[in-house]
Automatic annotation (TrEMBL), chain A:
SUPFAM superfamilies cross-referenced by the UniProt entry: MetI-like (SSF161098)
Top-rank taxon: Bacteria
Localisation: Cell membrane
Species of the source: Shinella lacus
Name of the featured protein: ABC transporter permease
Membrane topology of the entry: Multi-pass membrane protein
Protein's UniProt keywords contain Cell membrane: yes
Transmembrane segments: 101-121, 133-163, 183-202, 241-263, 283-309
InterPro entries linked: BPD_transp_1_N (IPR045621), MetI-like (IPR000515), MetI-like_sf (IPR035906)
Keywords: Cell membrane, Membrane, Transmembrane, Transmembrane helix, Transport
Domain ABC transmembrane type-1: 97-306
Family, as annotated: Belongs to the binding-protein-dependent transport system permease family.
Automatic annotation (TrEMBL), chain B:
Location in or out of the cell: Cell membrane
Membrane topology: Multi-pass membrane protein
Top-level division of the source organism's lineage: Bacteria
Protein's name according to its UniProt entry: ABC transporter permease
UniProt cross-references to InterPro entries, sorted A to Z: BP-dependent_transpt_permease, MetI-like, MetI-like_sf
Amino acid sequence: MSVFRLLASRILFSALTLLLVSVLIFLILEALPGDVATRILGRDATARALEVLRSQLHLDQPALVRYFHWLGDFLRGDLGVSIATGRPIADVLGPRIVNTLLLSLFAFVIYLVLALVPAIIQATNRGKAVDNVISVITLILLSLPDFLLATMLLFLFAVAVPILPALATISEASTWQETLRAMVLPAVTLAIMMAVYAIRVLRDSLIEVLRSDYVRLAELKGLRPRAVLFRHALPNAIVPALNVTALNLGFLIGGVVIVERVFSYPGFGTLLIDALQLRDIPLIKATVMISAAVYVAANLVADVLAILLQPRLRASR
Amino acid sequence: MSTITSSPAKRFAGFDAARWRATPGPFKVGAIILLAHALFAIIGVFWTPYGFAEMGAGLPLSGASWQHPMGLDQIGRDVFSRFMHGAHIVLLLAFAGTILGMVAGTALGLLSGYIGGWFDEITQRIVEAMISIPFLALALVMIIAAGPALAGEPVLIVFVVGLVYAPRIARIARAAAMEIATREYVAVAELRGEGTWSIVWREILPNAANVLLVEFSLRLSYAPILIGALGFLGFGIRPPTPEWGLMISENRNLLIASPVTVFGPGLGLASLVIGFNLFTDGLSRMLGQRAVAGA
């Protein structure tokens, strides 16, 4: 199979997956037995309020019609109107997505450092005390719930040693320094949560690569250890970590919900929680769809990168 | 295969000093931590210093003291008593949810991996789609969809954990089944004319046991975090049930006045997960499997 056909099939499968996700979300939220309007408003809602909501959500139409209506609008970029605020969802989502993207980007940069540095130290000091200490720390951090880690960092750096703001409530009025300072704690939390998964994988794959023939050869050629590590070993060791990074992006979307909540950061995650609390079904559908799309896209990119970076994979499938 | 048929009593006798010394270190530490948690949880069911919902056990918001090692919350409930009583709730929810996910995921994955063809293709696409929804978002959406009547019920939490886990476990089970399906003894069973169920149940399941056991342990490690996160966000078990995640969120505004009130239950949760993780690590080494961490 040629690379192009392989890539095309991956893209097709990703689109199919997203289509199924939309069916699933619709089924879970709107096609479960029972009245949707009553579930949103609670059992003591007045008949009038239920009637208004039903017409707002087009509940008088059959589920299949509503699904295709929603899907068609969604594909054309019309995300509908939020029930709770009455505003178009695209307007509500836009700035929140930008905020979360900023936060994620910041977190991702910290993640790269936090994942690479300990893994390199461990792999080059295999079996020594440093290796074990980092392993133990990684295991402990791996076991910390994200909401607990966020609360601990908040306590350490905003209460015990108050050098950073406890709340990351930024707005258009904040200067970029304020925004950056506010984002440090949430970004570091997210970065640590992602890095602990990657460190293990990266350490193991780096050790494997350092034992391989081509690294031996590079050493025998008399290259400096640093050049061997960064030029020959690291690029090859990163491929297995790519998958973890894609998984991590999936985690990032979930983690963002909790971390943004702890620090009251006005992003996509807090919007999802607000939408859920208000039972704003159109807004919930849109946010969950977008988060699934991000996850699928991240996996697609990781797959494509893996195919392009490792010629062996091209032939094997 | 013959060791598996030995009687339970005989297998139990195998746990002697020599065998204990041969087990990997992480497994031992993990097992000890988990045993301590189990004991703590059992004691917490029958006895706590104060009632877990008893208001006015002491002065509200007063910090830690000998009488109240984790301080008191806003309505004067002894946080340590709540923490103790919550231990069995966290453990039971985690086990029940993971077992449900395990049963559903294993059945689906093994069948789909063994049968293959269209059934496998369709199942895989659905599994893929479910995994694509970030697990926390999926869990929260299912909780909302269940409606106000079920909200906060333990049954709902168990179902949600099970449903979030099932597709992830199914993927692992399927891969194992596909590999085992190519072995000779499966072909022999097919020639004997055994039915699909019987082959999946008697040939494939026992041989996938190691993979599944490690997977179970791995999922179990994460279940308290997932359940805690739901509680922390206010979508988990209904108050006043002292689930640890919910307690951390309830007492978060005491962070400055009395940190131990927040970090006490937090430490409990973290040590439980550390115990599970060490246990999983050791188990996967003993069974010659590689635990795969990740969402």
